[in-house]
Amino acid sequence: xxxxxxxxxxxxxxxxxxxxxxxxxxxxxxxxxxxxxxxxxxxxxxxxxxxxxxxxxxxxxxxxxxxxxxxxxxxxxxxxxxxxxxxxxxxxxxxxxxxxxxxxxxxxxxxxxxxxxxxxxxxxxxxxxxxxxxxxxxxxxxxxxxxxxxxxxxxxxxxxxxxxxxxxxxxxxxxxxxxxxxxxxxxxxxxxxxxxxxxxxxxxxxxxxxxxxxxxxxxxxxxxxxxxxxxxxxxxxxxxxxxxxxxxxxxxxxxxxxxxxxxxxxxxxxxxxxxxxxxxxxxxxxxxxxxxxxxxxxxxxxxxxxx
Length: 307
Ligand SMILES: [Zn+2]
Fold this sequence. Notes:
It contains twelve helices and eight strands. It starts with a helix and ends with a helix. Helix 2 (45-62) runs parallel beside helix 3 (81-93), helix 2 runs parallel beside helix 9 and helix 8 packs across helix 9. It has 307 residues and is an alpha/beta fold. Bound molecules: zinc ion. Zinc ion (ZN) binds next to strand 1.
């Protein structure tokens, strides 16, 4: 009997080791969310607070670490700056680390280095105040646009590096900014059926994007990488956050911090430079490869284009 048990245990161990040998690195992902406090068309603080609390409640319940990238320019111009700063504070109170996404969501492609650096510095005032005694340490390029040349990007990263910041690329996104146009239409028209249709299509699309990113990273690196996911602070995500997290959980993903993700050696620059912080695209370009990626359904694209 004891012998049988020992053989059984050895078999189980053997099986476990072979699973690890086949799969290599576990599936891991760090969540990041951009355009805080509100991505897309702006609305009043009361609604924004509700959205923020819903998103953060789901985050807390699911114990997912996250970094939120702020456009401080979004705090001004609505005559309610205090209310919008208080909403940003809900994020830090919930333990979300904030990062800099420039003041005005400026694309590097259309800016001079001096302009871009100005907008970076202007974008950290409130964030620094809210994060005390900690300091912001992450930067996300708006539109995922890095400097047009490697030299320009290096100069910018040196500039932010001297101020304690690191640029954070991404390896996965959900094109939530495009689905948002449809979802906002459903909300504005109070059309519950359409809201559900958009949510269902969005979640289906998230699954397709995960499949696609996994396939591309396996082809580029031959293993599971430490992913960084890009999301946006909007009602589409707030209303679907539990389901979105569940998709990753069901596929065996572990939720890690950005600090942990950046330890993966894929986050160094590939040999051939492309001006993008879409990191799989960047590496594919460097290796002379091209991958087709899934696109949202036609109706989502049309509504986004205003058709
Ligand atoms: Zn953005």
